[in-house]
Amino acid sequence: MKPKPNPPLALLAELTHRCPLACPYCSNPVELTRKEQELPTGTWLDVFREAAEMGVLHVHLSGGEPASRPDLETLVAGAREAGLYTNLITSGIGLTEKRLRALDEAGLDHVQLSLQGVDAALADRVGGYRGGFDRKMQVAAWVREIGFPLTLNAVMHKQNLDRLEETIDLAVELGARRIEVATVQFHGWAARNRAALMPTRAQAQRAREIVLAARERLKGILVIDYVPADHHAQFPKACMGGWGSTGLNVAPDGTVLPCHAAQTIPSLRFERVGDRPLRDIWENGPAFEAFRGEDWMQEPCRSCERRHIDFGGCRCQAMALAGDAAATDPVCSRSPLHARLVAEAEADAAVTEAEFVYRRMNSPALVS
Ligand code: SF4
Ligand code: SF4
């Protein structure tokens, strides 16, 4: 009999796909879930209780924009009551000072604010939302005033990577304790925007140098987490810390997922909260079992000494680029498809004029 997996540490609760912003790199699926399909308050509260009972420690309240849900305060209070550490991942749009104070009352522990750019011109163009940057700066000031620990979440790509130093400086200015410098991952809407977003190799190398220097300079002031550009890397990252190993996602309609992009793998069968206990879905659900451990691996991963480090890379990326979710992630230099991947990435990176396909609930329009 197989040993039971350890419980996940974190639950990503995608409360809604509604969002006022329209970032072209959004990792939400291209088929967005509509408001009518979202889980009601009571079901989310059950999910939080079940998650805590099975050993989950953190809940990341995400979306879309979680502030689009008028019951956000109730959800935070419920998650806290269940014993979870609560992190709100937000664009800031939809949060007022009054609402933030209510979230503080409800027990919110931490705020993670997304940053689309370092000034209004860049940020509002990337986010597809006029006035978004000024609003976000105001929200950051309220967050600091109330005393929430703040993390900035900066997705970096071709059009903002040259301003990485300013991005890090802005995090310090806003009183953030941590910044996540995450080079764009090509899932969801980002896959539709490869030519507009793919960084050049020179940008990727420079970003690494900037991060290393800033980490040294800002020791004790700002923690910098860095997700490098994987199309220019030698080895893939350890996606999700290993499939079905450290975290699970619940989508707005209650679908339980091993990662946010897992629905791009057509062979997987997913269950919903309420179908059976969350613990049972985590331990025995077919989607979680599919790529847990090493039995599913093919060569070169199967005999590779790095398989315990990166777990063969990202399954969704293997699906998207190799057409086989069990293949070695083509980002890996040992994959037979790596040379093709690099050539395609270089071609996308070389494009100087590409229009954004903005993330929209309805069919996407091309906007420059
Ligand atoms: S990435 Fe942008 S569009 Fe997507 S949920 Fe976050 S703020 Fe909204
Ligand atoms: S061959 Fe597989 S396990 Fe080895 S480094 Fe590449 S992706 Fe990782």
Q: Give the distinct bound molecules.
A: iron/sulfur cluster
Structural class: alpha/beta
Shape: globular
How much of the sequence lies in strands comes to 5-15%
So how many helices? 13
Rg over C-alpha atoms, rounded to the nearest angstrom: 20 Å
Mean pLDDT: 94
Neighbour order of strands in the largest sheet: 7-6-5-4-3-2-1-8-9-10
Helix proportion range:
25-40%
Q: What kind of sheet is the major sheet?
A: 10 strands, mixed
Terminal CA distance reads 56 Å
| Low-pLDDT segments, ≥5 res | 363-368
Order of helices and strands: EHEHEHEHHEHEHHEEEEHHHHHEE
* Assembly status: single chain
DSSP, total strands? 12
Keywords:
13 helices, 14% strand, 368 residues, binds iron/sulfur cluster, disordered C terminus, alpha/beta, two-stranded antiparallel sheet
